[in-house]
Amino acid sequence: MKKPLLLTAGVLTAPAVLFAFLVAGTPRPGQVQADAAPGTCVVPASNQRVPQSDARDRNWTTIIERGIAKKIPGRGIQIALAVTLVESTGLNYASRKVPESLRYPNDGIVPGDHLSINLFQQQVGMGWFDTIENGMRVPVAADSFYDHLLKVNGWQVMSFGAAAQAVQRSAFPSRYGKRQAEAVAIYNRLIGSAAPVVPAVATAGPNIDECKQETSGPVAISGRWANPLKPAAYVLTSPMGWREFRGIPNFHKGQDLGVPIGTPVHAICDGVVARAEWDNYGGGYQLDLDCGGDILIKLMHNVGFKVKKGDNVHAGDVVAISGNEGNSTGPHLHVQVEKTGELINPVAFFADRGVPL
Predict the structure, then answer these.
(1) How many angstroms from the chain centroid is the CA of residue 266?
(2) Are the C-beta atoms of 353 and 315 separated by less than 8 Å?
């Protein structure tokens, strides 16, 4: 990471439990220490011995897992992924300017930029990690990035690139925002394979590895309907109607279904994806389904999608992964039903169609 030499960062240490686990643990699958005879240090070009594409996906999956474990919003995880695209193309680099880094599992060795190491190119002595060994551990590097991000006041409302730059303090600040689309694509591709690293995270369901191919055509109501979460267990939480939200009276436009982060979200109807993007007004990653007959169903607070705008879907298809994004008070799926723009109570709507919530 290219930084002006006079820039400084606050000192952060990895959480004690994570630190103890990482120090005592063995390398992850595919990671091996450099071979060396007693008293010598033989350093290969890379001591991972796995294809670089596999190494990238392994590293990015770890970043996603650590973000979920630390309850980082999906957008924050995507910012972390974008930073690694810029700094290292997602590879955990050792640096010849930091000779000790060559001793630890890495995806390659670079000449070095200042005293920067790992896939975030975090600098030695700048408060990112306590030891070089930990600095070369992807979970520790990811945790440190997230800890720094959370200290940036208002990062959630900053532009993608500005939030990344507030953490990285690069001499080339415009690079991060340019990688946003790639980071989002990586996130959506890997979120289903990230391990459930905290009890509140459910395992992703089957058949969610690939996005559907885009198709086009008129939307006709089919009469087929499906529950958005079953067979996963969930609870009905905040209903449609007036309520107090963070001390302010607010009309809640849909029904909330309390469910762990990472639960597969299913298409409610046969229809077309009308929207699949970040909602700047509190919906988080929001997916809208045009069910035909002027019926639009909105599914909010997801962490990612398995489809894109314009895709044809069938009732029961996995279309998203549930989360806690946007204006949310806990992990849940918000279901909102509209007909010609008028709100309909989701509980009554589904009951009328033989698919009770």
Answers:
(1) 19
(2) no
Contact present, 354 and 225 (Cβ < 8 Å): yes
- Whole-model pTM: value is 0.47
d(CA 116, CA 112): 6
Find out whether 146 and 12 touch, Cβ atoms under 8 Å. no
Per the model's pLDDT, the better-predicted residue between 236 and 7 turns out to be: 236
Q: How many CB atoms lie within 10 A of CB 214?
A: 12
Instruction: Map residue 252 onto helix, strand or coil.
Output: strand
Three-state DSSP state, 146: helix
Q: How far is CA 349 from CA 62, 158, 230, 339, 346, in A?
A: 40, 38, 17, 11, 5
Whether omega for the bond prior to residue 231 falls within 30 degrees of 0, making it cis, is yes
Give domain status of residue 246, yes or no: yes
8 A C-beta contact, residue 228 and residue 335 = yes
Strands 93-95 and 108-110: parallel
Q: How many CB atoms lie under 10 A from the CB of residue 100? A: 16
The answer to whether residue 269 sits within a structural domain is yes
CATH code, domain with 280:
2.70.70.10
Q: What is the pLDDT of residues 149-203, one digit of tens each?
A: 999 999 988 999 999 999 988 888 888 999 999 999 999 888 765 544 332 333 3
Residue type, 196: P
Residue 148 domain boundaries: 16-193
User: What mean pLDDT is predicted for residues 75-84?
Assistant: 94
d(CA 307, CA 147): 31
The pLDDT assigned to 264 comes to: 94
Closest-CA residue to 311 (of 330, 290, 339, 283): 290
User: Are 187 and 79 spatial neighbours (Cβ–Cβ below 8 Å)?
Assistant: no
Same domain, yes or no, for 64 and 169?
Answer: yes
Say yes or no: 181 and 319 in one domain: no
Give the 3-state secondary structure of residue 45: coil
Is the separation of the CB atoms in 146 and 70 below 8 Å? yes
Q: How many CA atoms lie within 13 A of 122 on its CB side?
A: 33
**Residues 231 and 202 sit within 8 Å (Cβ to Cβ):** no
Q: Choose the most confident range, by mean pLDDT, from 100-104, 174-178, 188-192, 286-290.
A: 286-290
